[in-house]
Amino acid sequence: MIKLLQVLIDGTLVGLVYGLVAISFVVIYRASKIVNLSQGEVLVFGALFLWTFTFGVKALGYDMPLWLGLLVTMVACVGFGLLLERFVFRPLIGQPAFAIFMASIALLVMLRGTAQLVWTAETRPFPAFLPGGALQLGPFMVSTKLLIGALFTIALTAGLHLFFTRSRRGLRLAAVAEDHNTALSLGVSVRGAIAVAWILGTVVATFGAIVFLSGRIVSLEVASIGFKALPVALLGGLESIRGAPLAGILIGVGEAVAMAYLDPVTNGVASNVLPFAVMIGVLLLRPQGLFGWKKIERL
Amino acid sequence: MLPTGIQFSTYTGEAGILKTNRARIGVLLIVILLLVAPLMSGPYLLGIGTQMFITLIAVYGLHVTVGMAGQINIAQSAFVGVGAFAAAKLSSYGLPFWVVLPLAAVITGLVSVLFALPAARVKGFYLALTTLAAQVLFPIVILGLPQDWLGGLVGLPVEPLKIAGYSMGSPKHFYYFTLALVLLATYAAYNLHRSRLGRALKAVRDNDVAAEVMGVPVLRYKITAFFTGSLFAGVAGACTAWFLQFVTIESFTLFASVWYLGMLIVGGLHSPVGAILGVLFITFLQEGLHEVATLVMRSQSHAVGGAVFATTNIVLGACILLALIFEPRGLAHRWSVLRTAYQLWPFPRQ
After folding, report:
1. Which domain covers residue A72, as residue numbers?
2. Which residues of A touch B286 (CB under 8 A)?
3. Domain range holding B134?
């Protein structure tokens, strides 16, 4: 019983990290109708920026305080988002969804190549922003780092949800998520929306990297968390900010249970397959996810 | 666009793949060139040629799924992998190649149908996500299966191809084998465009709601599109297995899938010419980069192995983006503009 509860707690906390990365998917989709397959690579970029402005700068002999490094990283993320908007997605406004989807796939290989060329494939330590260790709560162990990350995820979800549903700017973004051409004809700036989407997307992905990687090791392989967060975003509904952490918990708990009870029998396959099995199940049973928008099509 | 003065009195003439004598002679010349090429080239060029043929077969498959039916497939490399593992396993039982090849193709097709089923409920990029799931799950499942089934992490060795007792293991023989297959695949790809299936797939691509209203069973054709495209992938996979004589999951990554898609997009989605031009263009680019990289490596003493892969990825990504932004119809469109101008000369082109 205690083992099961421990597994559930771990699953929930890890699931909220998936939820955080899934939010970075959702904000991009919710503000610009772009399904960004390269989100994992964007996260790696955020992590590598952060490494550069902390340990990388230190290796060059300059000592930068951690908060300043974080600030510079956020500025770099904003620049990165604007760059992508200007040179990749602005020319594609009004193109069919196919072209935009393909562009995100092209971006996947391009970002991976750039990261490998600039930072090389070696593994590096990631600065420990959050305290390590674990809290002892009765018979259970709770990782401090993940607990802080979970609280942060919940706060961020609430904030972003308010932004998207209450503020004027956020509501305009909803129009862009509905349809680019309609939004343009109503006088909503699609360029601006895509820029906001990518800035939010990269910044949230960097937060995800901080929670996920704090005190661990960063390498190009970390990008695979992007593909783990994709089923989460889909389960929660691509348009729903609040759906992402909830779906994250569901998938995180499912994965943890599968890891603890099914993996010994199935040679470690069950926990890896589960998120994608859920994804295909969601697509078959409820394509819009738990809280997504249901689309009606006319001829 | 045909040259002036050519007309047809029968439908069969109009529907022919090669309509004029000039086109027939042109194709004959290309085939003869490909037939005599191995007599004049070394093993390096032969290898590239064979590799190109195999890639072309896989890209033809993608042309059917993505170009004709409009269903995004980012798991072509996984499907090629399924074909390769199927061929490796089947030929280890001592089956002859004419059993292994079709069987591997059909197995690949059936696996792809499994991931095409969500087409019943979703479309567009949602469907693409299920193919992504196929690509991500492929190595996990192969690694998870018992080692003596599909080799797991180590991989499976493959006996060289044997046809009627003769070994086709030498590069030259295998070149001719893949050449024969690629000619067959080219004919199939062109033929598909004028068949009932091809027309139905194009209707689904252009507007699936309208196609449904017009009486095209959309779901069945979407699944058929994946099945057909994966038959090509299965053949390409079997060839890969015999070509490398060893199959591991390392050869069938997401990046390979993106490269296949990139070739198709750069070449042009909507015609088999696009597949051919795309494969040629990207292969030349890749080999060019390798040449440059070896030169750089010689001049600088420290090795830059990973940088080649990285640069290839950047260049390929840039090519896809440029094609999407500036010429979504791909090189095939440029080619047809050029051809029309030549055929109408000295009149101005339309």
Report:
1. 2-223
2. none
3. 41-253
Q: How far apart are the first and last CA of chain A?
A: 55
Question: Which of A86, A98, A273 is the mutation pick for testing B, counting most B CBs within 10 A?
Answer: A98
d(CA A109, CA B338): 31
Burial of residue A121 (number of CB atoms within 10 Å: 0-12, 13-18, 19+): middle
> What pLDDT, in 10s, does the model give residues B260-276?
999 999 999 999 999 99
**Which residues does residue A134 pair with via DSSP β-bridges, in sequence order?**
A143
Please check whether residue B136 touches A, CB under 8 A: yes
Token pair in block for residue B16: 């022919």
Cβ burial, residue A236 (10 Å; 0-12/13-18/19+): buried
CB contact at 8 A, A36 and A16:
no
Residue B176 lies in a domain: yes
Give the orientation angle of helix A66-84 with respect to helix A39-51, to 10 degrees.
Answer: 140
Count of the separate structural domains present in chain B:
1
pLDDT, tens digit only, all 299 positions of chain A: 788 999 999 999 999 999 999 999 999 998 888 888 899 999 999 999 999 998 888 888 887 888 888 999 999 999 998 999 899 999 998 888 889 989 999 999 999 999 988 888 788 888 888 887 888 888 888 888 889 999 999 999 999 999 999 999 889 888 888 888 888 999 999 999 999 999 999 999 999 999 888 878 888 888 888 888 999 999 998 888 999 999 999 999 999 999 988 888 887 788 888 999 998 888 888 888 888 888 776 66
pLDDT, tens digit (0-9, with 9 covering 90-100), for B110-166: 999 999 988 888 877 788 888 999 999 999 989 888 888 888 788 888 888 888 778
Q: Evaluate whether residue B10 is within a structural domain.
A: no
Cis preceding linkage at A139, omega within 30 = no
- Is A292 within the bounds of a domain? no
Taking the CA atoms of chain B, what radius of gyration do you get in angstroms? 21
A273 min Cα distance to partner chain B (Å): 7
Number of domains in chain A: 1
Cα–Cα distance, A187 to B168 (Å, whole number): 65
The Cα of A67 is separated from the nearest Cα of chain B by a number of Å equal to 32
Q: With respect to residue A271, please indicate whether it lies within any of the assigned structural domains.
A: no
Domain assignment present for A264: no
Give the torsion through C-alpha atoms of A215, A217, A218, A223, to 10 deg. -100
d(CA A273, CA A269): 6
Q: Nearest CA to CA, how far is A280 from chain B (Å)?
A: 6
Q: Is residue A201 part of a domain?
A: yes
Structure tokens at B52: 């190109």
State whether A113 and B70 contact (CB < 8 Å).
Answer: no
Cα A215 to chain centroid, rounded: 19
Q: Which of A112, A285, A36 is nearest to B132 (CA)?
A: A36
**B140 lies within 8 A of chain A by CB:** yes
Q: Is residue B274, in this structure, part of any structural domain at all? A: no
Is pTM beyond 0.90? Reply is: yes
Residue B86, domain member (yes or no):
yes
Q: Which residue has the tokens 């059909």?
A: B106
